[in-house]
Amino acid sequence: MLRGFINCKTTEERINYIMNSKAEDWTEAELSSVMEIVGVKGDYSNASISDKLSVIVTTLGFVNSNDAQFDRIKDNGEAVDDMDSMKDAVRYTKLISNLYAKSSHMTV
Questions:
Q1: pLDDT, tens digit, for every residue of 64-83?
Q2: Which residues contact 74 (CB under 8 A, 6 or more apart)?
Q3: Whole-model pTM?
């Protein structure tokens, strides 16, 4: 599965590849690699495979989104003056936090 993901040329192809796969097709090691490639932040070690796939697709969606422009946010200790970028960053943070909270309540 990892090789197929890496062979995808565009973000859209990667999203489609994941969306057309089944959770049982993926190993934990493959998902960890994909999460690192995509740039998913946080500890998802207790998350289910389907939740990890959702986080990956969501992260890829933000990368592909015309609305998300996280590179415009400057963290220099001063207030962020670009409200659109700040709203995108807050929305992303809430999404990831909610997924993380959901996964941390799972029992092993």
A1: 554 444 444 444 544 445 55
A2: 80
A3: 0.59
